[in-house]
Design brief:
The chain has 399 residues and is mainly alpha-helical. It has 15 helices and 2 strands. The structure holds heme C.
Length: 399
């Protein structure tokens, strides 16, 4: 019952997280596009202090957008700020992290094949990585290093690699990936909260009192919003990565993560340039080529059959009993596992027909990657995997 309630909380918070995340990233994509699509206004608008002009049609109406050089003639009564999208995405994300990975640490965060942690240690480490990384990033951004944007980026990327490796030494593959994502998200929202918003508040304050805004505010905000731009696509990948065990389940999952972060950040560059009418399809081409190389590199190796191959009739029986023994505590109409009380992913392996039906996915999850049994909770051995592999490659016969 308790787990049933937690599942509902998780469902509702995840739903909110996706909604607020769409609103946040959507608004940020929109403003990037807007800024880069502004055209030179006619003279009468220039005389009013407008430096960029844009017309659009959407939802049955024509919109006129004007970007001012400084303050408008009269400050509007209602000025819309875009911040709660970011804050609420972070807040719901932290609740999800706590509900799924901290409350459920034994299931999702701790993998005893990686490190023998208890729940408290795992949570402490997770929060420590989060806070520590955010502090390190903040210090680097206000250090003299920040004067050279490229050098800073190189240092951050190196530290990011070290972080990915470090997380993979303590947590399950999923746990490591989600923490890396939570850290990126925290840095991005922190940038909005600590730098971008205060800068805008000062800007608006100065405009309201007729002063010239200090250009330093803009420069500082610019660095952080540039970081946010390049972190967006990696962040979104990480948030969907837990559907793809070939990434987080790989022996070098930290290197795979780093490779995907670089590839997705570089693909962003294509869109950044396209917004200013520079077309560099080679960037996307390189990103696609790198993805193919990565996919080939992490492709599952053919399973090695250890020992003598079993005779066909024995093989079928043996493989089915292994699946029964190692998988059905969770994957059954009535699971006996204390955490997974309904068959995860809708996969039930009670009968031979069901095992045959799911054979390709059984291969993907427990042979090609060792992602199943979940955290190897039921202690499946390599020899057993080899027998199941042999059975599946023989066409998963019933007998
Ligand atoms: C301790 C519980 C547990 C055990 C034991 C377990 N699984 Fe799973 N399985 C899960 C969970 C949780 C999910 C859903 C999360 C996911 O998809 O990553 C899942 C999802 C799956 C899926 C569906 C997703 C897909 O890729 O189509 C397959 C197939 C699967 N498991 C196969 C297996 C096999 C084969 C075994 C035994 C060798 C096994 N599982 C043992 C918990 C378990």
């Amino acid at each position: 019952m308790e787990i049933y309630i937690v599942d509902w909380i998780s469902l509702i918070v995840r739903w909110l997280h996706v909604i607020t995340g769409i609103a946040w990233i959507g608004a940020s994509f929109y403003f990037m596009w807007l800024d880069n699509s502004l055209e030179e206004p006619p003279q009468w608008k220039k005389d009013k202090g407008i430096k960029g002009d844009l017309w659009a049609v959407h939802g049955g109406g024509i919109y006129e957008v004007a970007k001012y050089q400084g303050a408008p003639e009269k400050m509007p009564e209602h000025l819309h700020w875009f911040k709660w999208e970011a804050y609420s995405t972070w807040l719901t994300g932290m609740v999800l992290l706590a509900v799924i990975y901290y409350l459920g640490a034994e299931s999702y965060l701790i993998d005893r094949r990686v490190a023998d942690l208890n729940q408290l240690q795992a949570i402490g480490l997770g929060l420590g990585f989060l806070l520590g990384s955010w502090i390190a990033y903040t210090v680097l951004c206000i250090s003299p290093l920040a004067k050279n944007g490229w050098l800073l980026a190189a240092v951050l990327l190196t530290l990011g690699g070290a972080l990915a490796w470090g997380l993979s030494q303590f947590f399950s593959g999923r746990g490591a990936y989600i923490h890396f994502g939570a850290i990126i998200g925290t840095i991005m929202v922190g940038n909005v909260f600590q730098v971008i918003m205060p800068g805008q508040r000062k800007l608006v304050g100065a405009l309201e009192s007729g002063e010239t805004p200090n250009p330093d505010w803009g420069a500082r905000a610019k660095l952080r919003s540039t970081h946010n731009t390049y972190l967006t696509l990696p962040l979104l990948f990480i948030m969907i990565s837990n559907h793809y065990p070939m990434t987080y389940g790989h022996a070098f999952n930290w290197a795979v993560l780093l490779a995907i972060v670089v590839i997705t950040a570089v693909s962003r560059q294509y869109f950044v340039l396209r917004h200013v009418h520079i077309h560099r399809p080679a960037i996307l081409g390189a990103a696609i080529a790198a993805t193919v190389i990565l996919a080939v590199w992490i492709a599952p190796k053919p399973a090695v059959t250890t020992g003598s191959a079993l005779a066909a009739d024995k093989l079928a029986m043996r493989a089915q009993s292994i699946i029964g023994e190692r998988c059905s505590s969770c994957h059954a109409a009535m699971p006996t596992d204390e955490v997974f009380t309904t068959p995860p992913g809708g996969v039930m392996l009670d009968s031979v027909e069901q095992m045959q039906q799911w054979a390709p996915r059984i291969k993907a999850r427990s042979i090609d990657s060792h992602d199943m049994p979940f955290m190897n909770k039921t202690n499946m051995t390599d020899e057993e995997r080899a027998i199941v592999a042999q059975w599946i490659s023989a066409g998963s016969p019933a007998t």
